[in-house]
Amino acid sequence: MATWHLGIWENELYEPSALVADFSSNFEAFYCPGDTLKFVPHSVASAGATYQWSFPGGSPASSTQMFPATTYSAAGSYDITLIVTDGANSDTITKAAFITNIASGTIPFAEGFESGTIAADWKLKGQPSNPSYWNVIGGVGGYGTSNYSLEYNNYYYDAQGAHDALWTAKYDFTNMSQAKLYFDVAYVPYSNTYSDTLEVLVSTDCGATFTSLYLKGGNQLATGPANASAPFVPSASQWRTDTVDVSGYAGFDEVLFSFENIGRYGQVLYVDNINISAQFTGIQEADSKITYALYPNPASSYFIIAVGSGTIPKGTPIFIYSTSGKLISSSSVNATTDKIRISTGTLATGFYFVKIGESVIKVAVRKD
């Protein structure tokens, strides 16, 4: 419409973009043979475009879905092809997927999540798109001695009893005789009606089957009184270290653990400082019979290492390591005794491994 002899000019300013096929995936590495790989198109195309995927060596080997998935039964190099058709036009792209089965890690092992993220060789299972799912949260750490921990927020999400899991990496237990899994946990129930459960399981066949090692929920899991007023944030005293003997898995070269939240709309669950300590074959018989205790733990200015019975021989080596495996200090027992007092000295607030003889003990240092 135009008035007063003024016209309306029409000009085609929109120019359609050229059709471009593209996609991405998590195909750089996968955790175990048979894992599902998901593909996301990043093509420049109209909403009516069609997609033809080709996955030679995968199952399925092809798909016409926009967001397909496939599995590969073994590591190797695979060509993945996407053909995008938009009206009379089409474009094709092929990318090589180098599938690498992640190798087993070594023990002893410690994960304190101080990187602020879940490690690349750990894996979320279940419903990871849920915003309350397992994630690393800042500002909360085991016993108040670190800055990060794992969190599952059941306060805002009702998982309705679903098992939402975080798998650790795989670990090589072939040369060890004894091993223990340690982890710090903090949790309070919402109420007697609404509470949640933590289960820890183990697999030796890359997650095909699992055996339950640990199952605690409600008041049994709790490290403090019920709280229905707000999401739970633990104080330094509202943590507990739980221990699971995993010596029965000696000889297996791919041992992985699954930490599973069984949610019932309760409270926030925290897990931190997941550690595996081990005693390897070939250890002197005399030392293997010595049982050590360490206290106070957490320690402030000092801690004591004592034996339940017998003595600590003169010359027994003592090493202190960071959780990343860095040697902090080394010394030896000056004279045969039943207890040793060790100053925390220049040790910063955090967790450490103390190796005395062939035994390894975890200690938390907390300085005010």
Kindly describe this structure:
There is one protein chain. The protein is mostly beta strands and 368 residues long. Helix content is 2%, strand content 42%. It has three domains: 77 residues, Immunoglobulin-like; 172 residues, Jelly Rolls (Sandwich), CATH 2.60.120.200; 81 residues, Immunoglobulin-like. The chain contains two helices and 25 strands. The strands form six sheets. Strands 8, 10, 11, 13, 16 and 18 form a six-stranded antiparallel β-sheet that branches. A hairpin with a 4-residue loop joins strand 21 and strand 22. The longest helix is centred in the middle third of the chain and has 4 residues.
Kindly give the count of domains.
3
- The quaternary structure here is single chain
Based on helices, strands and strand pairing, what is the structural class?
mainly beta
How many DSSP helices?
A: 2
Task: Name the helicity range.
Answer: under 10%
Order of helices and strands: EEEEEEEEEEEEEEEHEEEHEEEEEEE
Report the biggest beta sheet as strand number plus sense, adding barrel if it closes: 6 strands, antiparallel
C-alpha end-to-end distance: 78 Å
Shape type:
elongated
- Which class of the largest domain in CATH terms? Mainly Beta
Give the total of beta strands.
Answer: 25
Give the C-alpha Rg: 27 Å
Question: What percentage of amino acids are in beta strands?
Answer: 35-45%
According to CATH, the fold-level topology of the largest domain is Jelly Rolls
CATH architecture of the largest domain: Sandwich
Low-confidence sequence ranges: 1-14, 282-288
